[in-house]
Amino acid sequence: MKMDQRVWIVVCIVIGMVYSTPTESPSENTPYDSEFCHPLVIGHRGASGYVPEHTLGSYALAALMGADYVEPDLVMTSDKQLIARHDNELGLTTDVSLRPEFSSRYRNKSIDGNEISGWFTEDFTLAEIKTLRAVERIADIRPGNARLNGAFEIPTFQEIIDLVKSLQTSQKRVIGLYPEIKHSTYFQSVGLPMEQSLVDILHGNGYEGSHAPVYIQSFEINNLKNLKSITQLRLLQLYDSKPMSPFDQIVSGTGVTYGDMATPDGLKEVAKYAYAVGPDKSYIIPRDANNNLGEVTSFVSDAHAASLKVHPYTFRAENYFLPEEYNSDVSINKQSAIGNLAAEIQAYFDAGIDGLFSDQPDIPVRTRSSCTRKALH
Q1: Positive or negative CA dihedral for 317, 322, 328, 330?
Q2: Which of 54, 86, 183, 311 is catalytic?
Q3: What CATH architecture is 3-88+131-367?
């Protein structure tokens, strides 16, 4: 897709959809599985391979490309508003460093055990956040996206819901929401817990019950268990690398690692509170010493045996992220060049996954078998 085409598509979609009349959300009585293709395609941070992540433009483009779900990462402002950013540190994805009026907000903080310097959402009101503009996180790999720096503001979760409902009207199909709660333990420690606020917003917008087109995800455990007690919406346990532990488990001193949670017994424990698991894709097909795909593990079959769906992350089309065997053969800007993501995706489809997160959702949509969606009426 050429840059000028991308810009016009995104601008027209966002202007048109934001101001159209939202449709009603599917009720709990709607047969959930009839609304979506298989495997599910989740627009990771929207269509972040084409447009700066976590913007209304990115989410709109993901839906236009056929994504079943759009995925906003959620953090909180000082006045308790949920906004979409991958991290609570704003320096990588906004122009805050160029704003002299906020220079005094620069802080050094410990977030999930990591020392981080920058500007943090919890030190800004929503009104202040709305003065910032989004920028591309990985401009060296996605220079085309960087040409859209400054084109979009930072959306609230409610604005994303409004956009999705409008897109459902224009696309005449169900589009799901797949929010991730970021840094749950940290935000609780500073008096800004997100879980109840998230549930209140979702329920208030008609997303209730296990058939609603929503998954709530987290890398932590305790907040998902808490969520299970206050909502019937589907929950997904994310998995970081095997030696690591969820931060809430570090704080409580349990010693539980993601590797422990990936064993057959560990997956059975996860199934007590979660409907699905979201592992790093290496849990399913690790890479060998030459950075090629290795042998398929038993993770998918073990998860299915525990009655868990499997939605791995993250599928990206640039050579930088792909197995060596699927790299395109170029000598200039090799890391930014687009390789054969479809081939990698097909390997995971063949491994039996139930869905995936992708920065370029159009590619998995084209790769999976054709299917018939049930239209909204």
Answers
A1: positive
A2: 86
A3: Alpha-Beta Barrel (3.20)
